């Protein structure tokens, strides 16, 4: 007998997103499992996925040995966003945005484990239509959320801010989206 499996976290999120203000949102890299979860990315070169996983493993090992984070976590965030959403990244140091998704310019911001706040700041002068915020937990799980530029909160004429939690405002099931990093709970066995 094969019992029906309950919806996974990703499945619950998919249901909750149906009428969402979020364009896309998922938790796809789980360092304890050592790979991207749960879907396949056929448009991404396999060697790029391999490099991403190797870099995460290196960052984890470095943190364990030294107690410090490597300075390339922002780059890892951009690479993760490119893998997850299919963003075609611009060349390094391109002004205004980090890449293209279809006809939209995309800006990527990364919330690293050593950051004290879950708020990102963006220059309003940037040429972007969408924002991806990648969050990396202390145990190197990755989450990303993509929203339209209109959700940014203007701080002044030059800067806007966006908090991780504000990106889920209006969600039907906010508690599902707030559950980051992923908590690994083993399913209860039936007697």
Beta-strand proportion: 25-35%
Termini separation comes to 14 Å
Question: Helix count, per DSSP?
Answer: 4
**How many DSSP-defined strands?**
10
Brief summary of the model shown:
The protein has 191 residues and is of the alpha+beta class. It has 4 helices and 10 strands; from the N terminus they run αββααββββββββα.
How would you describe what is shown here?
- The chain has 191 residues and is of the alpha+beta class.
- The chain is built from 4 helices and 10 strands, in the order H-E-E-H-H-E-E-E-E-E-E-E-E-H.
- The protein has helices at 9-16, 46-66, 73-85, 174-178; strands at residues 24-30, 35-36, 88-89, 99-101, 104-111, 119-123, 130-136, 142-148, 153-154, 159-163.
- The strands form 2 sheets. It has a 7-stranded mixed beta sheet with strand order 2-1-8-7-5-4-3, with helices on one face.
- Helix 2 (46-66) packs antiparallel against helix 3 (73-85).
- The longest helix has 21 residues, at 46-66.
Can you lay out the helices and strands and say which pair or pack?
Blueprint: H1 9-16, E1 24-30, E2 35-36, H2 46-66, H3 73-85, E3 88-89, E4 99-101, E5 104-111, E6 119-123, E7 130-136, E8 142-148, E9 153-154, E10 159-163, H4 174-178
Parallel strand pairs: 5-7
Antiparallel strand pairs: 1-2, 1-8, 3-4, 4-5, 6-10, 7-8, 9-10
Helix pairs in contact: 2-3
């Amino acid at each position: 007998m094969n019992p029906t499996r309950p919806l996974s976290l990703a499945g619950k999120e998919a249901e909750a997103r149906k009428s969402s203000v979020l364009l896309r949102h998922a938790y796809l890299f789980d360092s304890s499992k050592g790979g991207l979860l749960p879907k396949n990315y056929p448009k991404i070169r396999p060697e790029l996925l391999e490099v991403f996983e190797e870099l995460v493993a290196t960052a984890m090992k470095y943190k364990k040995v030294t107690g410090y984070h490597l300075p390339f976590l922002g780059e890892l965030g951009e690479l993760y966003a490119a893998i997850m959403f299919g963003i075609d990244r611009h060349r390094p140091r391109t002004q205004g945005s980090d890449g293209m998704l279809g006809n939209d310019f995309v800006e990527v911001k990364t919330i690293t484990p050593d950051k004290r706040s879950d708020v990102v700041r963006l220059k309003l002068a940037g040429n972007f239509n969408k924002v991806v915020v990648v969050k990396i937990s202390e145990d190197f799980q990755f989450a990303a959320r993509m929203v339209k530029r209109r959700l940014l909160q203007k701080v002044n004429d030059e800067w806007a801010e966006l908090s991780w939690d504000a990106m889920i405002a209006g969600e039907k099931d906010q508690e599902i989206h707030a559950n980051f990093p992923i908590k690994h709970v083993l399913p209860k066995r039936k007697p």
